[in-house]
Amino acid sequence: MTAPTAISAIDVMQTRGSVRKYQPGVEMPQADLEEILTLAAKAPSSWNLQHWRYLVISSPEQKQKLLPIAYNQEQVVDACVTVAILGDLEANKTAHQIYGEALNAGQITKEIHDNMVSQVDGAYANNPQLARDEAIMNASLSAMQLMLAAKAKGYDTCPMGGFSREALIKEFNIPERYIPVMLISIGKAATPARPTTRLPLDQLVIKESF
């Protein structure tokens, strides 16, 4: 058996596209899903708070519940899974765990631990706008990494902002701590992603200052 050819990061970024039509009935091995999510979770985050949570929707019953919430976009039914990317509005609470484990492992000193936890708690104190901005920004970093990881594993994806966040929260019992950022369908394409154009760099890049 010939070993699969490795795909470069550049190839992944160049070939990834938003696929909206998937082969129905394809089951994703649990090992593939776990690897994709593990890679997604390696994204960077402010203070390493890892603001993302992944609500994985894969059963036929749950997909049908998601369908009207996603404004009847069939991709949530036909794709192998749809992952709801959630942002943590109380990510500062995670700082105590993360820096506590680092302290216990001897990776940081007690002084660094106390300084970092204090810094995070101070930033989040009575500042819901910062909590929301951080949740969305950092969860989005992980979402992009998830899509690249999926492409590297031979799957296609589509990020979706068109869904009822209120209905998703209610139907899937999402705690107030988490804010829905986007849905990402993952599966095997039935139709390739539609070709898109990109603005030239001279319209995108501002050198030094406006």
From TrEMBL:
One MF term in the entry's GO annotations: oxidoreductase activity
Annotated Pfam families: Nitroreductase
EC number: 1.7.1.-
Domain of life according to the entry: Bacteria
Keywords from the named record: Oxidoreductase
Top-level EC class as recorded in UniProt: oxidoreductase
Cited Gene3D superfamilies: NADH Oxidase
Nitroreductase domain segment(s): 15-188
Family: Belongs to the nitroreductase family.
Protein name (Swiss-Prot/TrEMBL): Nitroreductase family protein
Organism, scientific name: Laceyella putida
